[in-house]
Write a structure and sequence with these properties.
By secondary structure, the protein is an alpha+beta fold. It contains 3 helices and 10 strands; from the N terminus they run αβββββααβββββ. The protein has 2 domains: about 90 residues, no CATH class; about 100 residues, Beta Barrel (OB fold (Dihydrolipoamide Acetyltransferase, E2P)), CATH 2.40.50. It is about 35% helix and about 30% strand. The strands form 2 sheets. It has a 5-stranded mixed beta barrel with strand order 6-7-8-10-9. A 4-stranded antiparallel beta sheet has the order 1-2-3-4, covered by helices on one side. α2 packs across α3.
Length: about 210
Amino acid sequence: MKKKKKDYYEDENYEINDIELIDQRKSSSKKITNIIFIIIIALVIMIATDIVCVAKYNKGPYFAVRTNTYNDGGTEVFYGLGYKVIKYHQKQGRRDTQIGFWNMKYQTTPTDINAIDLAIEFRNNPKKTANKLAKKFVRLTGEIYKIKDKELILQYKDPTDAYTLRIKCKMADEEDFSNLQEKMEITVIGTIENFTIATKTTPNKVNMSNCFAE
């Protein structure tokens, strides 16, 4: 049966309106997807910024919320999206900043190590030792090699220089070194920053920061 002209246009208008509605839905869906994508990218950038700043430069965090302050000198705890930051600030103890997952614990007990043991371990397995101890809070005992204003340099030296190791300790606060002298054995606590492999003119080295003499 042949359609009347009026019925034909009514059907055509219905189809056009239906197509426009579908296009509007697609456009709205695309806008929502773009907004979600932008939010995800922004969150990733925020998390990455805090991780890099804390882990590499000991700065921040900038996008985490402080939830607790310990009565130990001012240690602060921050929570971010999937990560946790502890900025240690004991009166005489740990002063570094750590980042990890939410289950990371408040830990102020240093790892005890002797300069001779560290020298042998690093000489035999430099990469493994550096990976294991970098950014670790330690209590290290060794012989004073040199005394500076805010710095003590400890050393283990063997006769052949094969295992000789120097430990540069940057002090956290001003300390009175008047009762110290070279070749005296001393114990310091602090955070190991990095290791340097020996060259033809220099021995293996360890750099420590935020140190205190015990």
